[in-house]
Design brief:
Order of helices and strands: EHHEHEHEEH
Largest sheet: 5 strands, parallel
Distance between the termini: 9 Å
GO molecular function: 3-dehydroquinate dehydratase activity
Keywords: Amino-acid biosynthesis, Aromatic amino acid biosynthesis, Lyase
Number of helices: 5
Shape: globular
Catalytic activity: 3-dehydroquinate = 3-dehydroshikimate + H2O
Bound molecules: 1,3,4-trihydroxy-5-OXO-cyclohexanecarboxylic acid
Mean pLDDT: 94
Strand order of the largest sheet: 2-1-3-4-5
Organism: Fluviispira sanaruensis
Strand content: 15-25%
CATH architecture: 3-Layer(aba) Sandwich
Active site: 22, 122
Length: 165
């Protein structure tokens, strides 16, 4: 089974970006560490980063269609082995799109309807910053929201997905 880790705009420059807020760790380092944890639990970590809203939507749509086709095969053949291709959970830091994107909300909602756990992660505490960061379009459909724990937020979310898997 796999875990999707999705990161939105400007997280590509993590480690160099407002380090007093986001820290010195790069996204590559964060993903590498998550992969090690996932592998130990026999989960495949698939990561995706984009600065473009529509690309994140397309990535999620493709994953959803793949999931549906796997589910259909499973129903038709009754083969449990197909379950190994299922999505155990989604970790997403939508970054600035958190506060603006109905499209990402909609693209994620279909997974929550399939009872796939979704964790919204923010490195910083979005409630302790500018007013415009306080609203999230993703939180209402998330299983859990982690904000302000730095990169440990991703680790915590992954541990929770492993626990639920
Ligand atoms: C962020 C918080 C967002 O408000 C901001 O736009 C980001 C990163 C975080 O991880 O703290 O780009 O999602």
């Amino acid at each position: 089974r796999k875990v999707l880790v999705i990161n939105g705009p400007n997280l590509s420059i993590l480690g160099n970006r407002q380090t007093q807020i986001y820290g010195f760790e790069t996204l590559q380092t964060i993903i590498q560490n998550l992969k090690i944890i996932a592998e130990k639990s026999d989960l495949i970590l698939k990561d995706y980063q984009s600065n473009i809203e529509g690309n994140i939507v397309s990535f999620l749509n493709d994953e959803f269609l793949e999931l549906l086709s796997k589910e259909n095969v499973k129903k038709l053949t009754n083969l449990n082995s197909i379950e190994h291709n299922n999505i155990a959970g989604i970790i997403i830091n939508p970054a600035a799109y958190t506060h603006t994107s109905v499209a990402i909300h909609d693209a994620l909602e279909v997974f929550s309807k399939e009872n796939i756990p979704i964790f919204e992660v923010h490195l910083s505490n979005i409630y302790a910053r500018e007013e415009f960061r306080r609203n999230s379009f993703v939180s209402p459909i998330a299983t859990g929201v982690i904000s302000g724990l730095g990169s440990f937020g991703y680790t915590a979310a992954l541990h929770r997905i492993i626990e639920l898997a």
